[in-house]
Amino acid sequence: MLNSFKKPDSPVALLVKNSPDLMSMIKEGDLVNGKLLKRAPRKVYFDLGRFGTGVIYGLEFSNAREVLKKLKEGDEVSAKVVSVENDDGYVELSLAGAEKQKSWQVIKELWEKGEELPVKITGANVGGLMAEVEELKAFLPVSQLSNEHYPRVDDGSKEKILEELKKFIGQELKVKILDVNPRTFKFILSEREVTNQNVKEKLTKYKAGDIVEGIVSGVADFGAFVKFADDPEIEGLVHISELDHKLVENPKEVANVNDRVKAKILEINNDRVTLSLKALKADPWLKVEEKYKAGTEINGRVSRFNPFGAFVALDSEIQGLIHVSEFGSVEEMEKQIKEGQNYNFYIEFVKPQEKRIILKLKK
C-alpha cells in the first residue's frame, strides 16, 4: 500500500476552517488595512490582523515601488485584495487603485447616510454639470437642479441651456448623492434632494383646489413657472394647455417674467406643483353657441397652419378649424388661404364640449 501524504493547511485555509464567519468578510476587490511587517527581495509583507498576512510582489511591487520605499515597519496602508489566497497561502495585495477605491467607499457611506455636501462645479454640458468629490468625477443632471437654478430657456435651445449652465462653473452648490456604482463609475448628484424636504414640509399647508398668488419666474415653450408669493421656495408649473382657454402657441402671449398672477393648484406630487391660470378665467366655450351657430357665415383671420388644417381666429378667445381635406392637400390649402389674412367662412358645426368649431371656406 502506498503511503498518502496530506499537504498541511495554509494559514488562510486554517482561518477559514476555524473562523469561517471572519473570512466571509474578505473577497477580491475589497480594501483592507495592513501594517508593514517585513521586507524581502521584491516582496513586502503586511500584517492584516484577523485576515492573516498579505504580500505585495511582482508587477504590483514594481508599480508601488516609490510608495513602498517611504514606508517603515509598523506603518499602515490601505491596499486592494487581488487574491484571497495565493499559492503560498498569503493574501495577495495591490496598492494600485486602492486610494480611488477608498474614495468610492467614502462616497458610498455618504450616500447611505443621505448626507448633504458642498461641491464645486468644474464643468458643464447640455445635460448638466460636472463636479469632483474625493477626486472622483460626479455628474449633476439638469433635471436634478433646484427650481432656483434650473435653466429657463424660452425656445429650448441647447446652446442657450449650455450658456446658462456654464455660469455655475466655479460656484459651490449643496447637493446629496443620488446614485453610486463604482463598477460602472456612476456617480450622480442631486441639488433637488437638498431642497425637497423643505418644500415638502411647506406644501403640507396647501392642497389641490387652493388659489394662490404668485410671480412668474420663468417662461418656456411648454409653459410658465410661478413662484408662490408667500413661499418663494415653492415653485409650480403652468403647462401651456393650462394658460388660457384659447389655443396658445407661445406662452409669452399670456405670461411674462415678473407678472403677478393668481393660479389654482391642480395637483401636488411630492415637491412638484401643477398650476392652472385658465381655471380662474371664465370659459368662453360655455356660451359659444349663443354667438356662433352652424350654417351661418362668419369672417375670421387665418392664424396658423398645421398638417391637418388651418386655425382661424373668430374673436380674441375662440378659434375655428378648417380641415385640409377641404383643399385636397396642404400645398393647395396654402395657395388658397394665407396666414394673417381674413376670409369669409361657413360654420359647419359647433361642439362646445370638445371646444371645436369646424369651418368651410366660402367660395
From TrEMBL:
Superkingdom of source: Bacteria
InterPro entries on file: NA-bd_OB-fold, Ribosomal_protein_S1, Ribosomal_protein_S1-like, S1_domain
Residue ranges occupied by any S1 motif domain in the UniProt entry: 29-96, 114-192, 209-278, 295-362
Database matches in SUPFAM superfamilies: Nucleic acid-binding proteins (SSF50249)
An annotated Gene Ontology molecular function: nucleic acid binding
PROSITE patterns assigned: S1
TM segment ranges: none
PANTHER family, alphabetized: OS03G0844900 PROTEIN (PTHR47559:SF1)
Known function: Binds mRNA; thus facilitating recognition of the initiation point. It is needed to translate mRNA with a short Shine-Dalgarno (SD) purine-rich sequence.
This protein's name: S1 motif domain-containing protein
Higher taxonomy: Bacteria, Candidatus Harrisoniibacteriota
